[in-house]
Amino acid sequence: MELIATTKTVNHLRFPATPRSRISIILPFKRSNLLDVHPKITISSNPRNNPLKNPIFLTQCSTNPTISDDRDNVIKDEDSTVSPDSNPDIQNPQKPTSDQENKASNCSVSRGLVLDLGSEGFWDSFEVGSPVVKRFLSDEEERWYMWYGGRSGGNLDPGSIGLAVSSNGIHWERGKGVVQSNSDVGVVLKSSDDWWAFDTNGVMPGEIVIMSSSKTRASSAVYWLYYTGFSNEKIEYLNNSLEFSLENPENYGKNGEFRTICRSLPGLAMSQDGRHWARIEGDHHSGSLFDLGSEGEWDSMFISSPQVVLHSSGDLRMYYHSFDSEKGHFAIGLARSRDGMRWMKLGKIMGGGRVGDFDEYGVMNPCVVKNKKDGGYLMVYEGVDVDGRRSIGLALSSNGLKEWHRVEGGPVLKPGVEKGCWDDRWVGSPYLVHMKGEKDEWRLYYKGVGQNGHSGIGMAVSEGNDVKNFHRWTGFHL
To answer: What residue spans carry the Polar residues bias annotation (predicted)?
Structure first.
C-alpha cells in the first residue's frame, strides 16, 4: 500500500484549554499516491483565524499498527512492547476467570452483552452505543480496542466518545472519566466548546482508519477518526412525518424519554495513540468535512454515521445515512475522496425495503468491509420497520459502489426474544470484525436496547465464515 501518513515525534501533543485547537496542525505526508497538490497538508484548526507559528506534533503511537488495503480489522503489531509509563492492568487485561465465563453463559437475558452501562458516576452510565472495534495481533498477545459513544445522564448531557480495551474482545476494561495518559481508558473526545462548530451538542464515532504501511515505521501510524457531530439545531420534520415516534438515532433517554433529533454533520480527528485527538477542520465553515445536500436532495436534513473504507491507494469511500424526506425513509449514501479530507458525494445507494420488510422505513448506520475471499463487499446495516423497530440486515456488492443487493431471508440479527432480554426492543449500529483462524468466523458488535430504554453493546458470532447467520455470544467453549 502506497498511502502512508508520517509524523515527526518532536514533543508530546499539547492541547489547549478548549477541545478544538486554534493552532495549526502540520502533517507531512508522502504524496506519491495521495492528492498530488502540495508536499504537505496544513490544516488550520479555526478557519476564521490565521494559523500561529507553532505546530502541534502527534505523540508516538503506543499500539504500533500497520494496516492493509483490504481493511479486514486485524492489525498486525510489529512491536507490542508496553511503554514504561503504561499500566499493565489496562494494556493487558487478565483473561476472565471461569466464574465470569459461566455467569455469562448461564444468563439468558444477558446473552450477547459484552459492555453494559458504566457504574454510577461514570461518563457512560446512562447510554452506550456505536461500537468501533479493532483487533491488534502480535506473536506474544492480542489486544482489542473499542471506541464507542456514551452519556452520563439526562437530556442535557451531550454524547462523548470513549475507549475501552480488552485481551479477547469480550471482557472490556473501561474508564470513569477523561483519559490522562497514553495507557488510560475512558473519554477520548468530547463535544466542542466553540459556538460556531458543528459538534457542540455531542459526538459519536463512525470509523477508525489507520494510515500506515509496512514500508514505514509502525510508530508513525496515525489514527483517523471519522465521527458524527451534533449541533443544537433541532429537526422537527421527522417526528411530524413518520407514523411512529422517532428518537434520535443514538441519543435518547430511558423509560420512553425521547430526544428531539438534532442536525448532524461528519467530522475528522487524528491521533497517534488512539486516546488523544486533534480535530481537523474541514472545508465547511463549521469545521465539518462537507455540508448537507441542497434543498430537495435526499441528504438535506442531516448526515450521520460516516463509515470510511480504504478501497485502494488514493481511493477512500465514505458510507453515511440521512433521511430522504421525499421518499419518506432513511437511506444510505456514498462519498469518495483521494486524501480522506475532501469529499465528493456520489448519491444515495440504498433506501427503504419492500412493503412489510424489516427495513421498509429505511436503512441506517452502515458498516462496510471487503471480503478477501471473493473481493466483494459486505454491508451490515440497521433496518427500520413501519413501527420503528430496528434489526440488522446484510447487503452485498461486487465493487462497493452502487450495485448493492439485499440478502434475502430477513435480518441477520433480530431483537432478543427472551422475556426481559437486555436487547428485546431493537438492535442496530452494527460493526463487523473478521476473525481469521481455523473457524474463520466473523464477529458482529452492535448496540442493543431493552424495552425500558436500557442500552448496551453486544456481540454475535457467525456460523463459520457464513455472514448470513449470526448467533449471540453465549460464553467460552472449554
So the answer is: 81-105
Q: In this predicted model, what pLDDT tens digit does every residue of 129-176 receive, in sequence order?
A: 999 999 988 777 889 999 999 999 765 678 999 999 999 999 999 999
Radius of gyration in angstroms for the set of CA atoms belonging to the chain, rounded to a whole number = 21
Closest by CA position to 169, among listed 132, 123, 129:
132
Burial class (CB in 10 A: 0-12, 13-18, 19+), 245: exposed
Give the helix/strand (H/E) hosting 200.
none
Q: Would you state the pLDDT for residue 234?
A: 82
Spelled out in words, what is the top-level CATH class assigned to the domain 61-472?
Answer: mainly beta
Q: List the end-to-end C-alpha distance of the chain, in Å, as a whole number.
A: 39
More confident residue, 16 or 112: 112
**Residue 343 exposure: Cα atoms within 13 Å on the Cβ side:** 29
| Whole-angstrom distance, CA of residue 300 vs CA of residue 297 | 6
Neighbours of 437 (CB within 10 A): 7
* pLDDT 10s digits, 175-195: 999 999 888 999 999 999 999
Q: Count other C-beta atoms under 10 Å from residue 466's C-beta.
A: 12
SS3 label, residue 455: strand
Read off the pTM.
0.79
Domain parsing of the chain, residue ranges: 61-472
Q: Cα dihedral angle (23, 342, 269, 238), rounded to 10 degrees?
A: 120
**Averaged pLDDT for residues 10-16:** 32
Q: Which residues contact 38 (CB under 8 A, 6 or more apart)?
A: 31
